[in-house]
Amino acid sequence: MPGRTRESRWPLLEFFMTAGRLKGERRKGWVVKLGMADPESVADHSYRTALMAMLYSDLRGLDTPKVLKMALMHDLPEALVGDTIPGERTRSQKHDLESAAMKKILAGVPTEVRGEYWRIWFEFSQGRTREAKLVRQVDKLEMAVQAFEYGKGRTPSGTDEFMETARANIRDDDLLDLLRLVTGAQ
After folding, report:
1. Which residues contact 20 (CB under 8 A, 6 or more apart)?
2. By three-state DSSP, how is residue 26 classified?
3. How much is the pTM?
4. For residue 62, what pLDDT is reported?
């Protein structure tokens, strides 16, 4: 970013610091449903979601750079609006709040990439493209893998709702096979 002034870099710093809030944003489902005091953060979840999505995207010949951006940004609005659990907000409320938050977060991003980032995040939120469908399903699979890890290699009690959510949202055969491993289903 040669040619940018010191002052023009402040919005970038704000963007990075806003994203950094996800490191302290605990995944609410683990707190509310399982009573965990120190569960994974949204940033922890987003990292593994991105890694899993990258691998499956490469195996399918999808647009992996887009998938990675999508996975890294999929929960970015939670830096401003917080993590939620199903039923806490209507789908419409969640979409409206997160859209407004994403616009605010991206406001300081250089215009050369701002539009692209918005389109990729919006594509994820709509869930219609192959890339968005993959990331949305991997998002749920990562949650199931985390539950499995919390149970140290078994599905811990109290996680049935998490596993059911994953089962209800995953359609991809390869992802379902991995889900069966962590749920113990055949």
Report:
1. 43, 79
2. strand
3. 0.92
4. 98
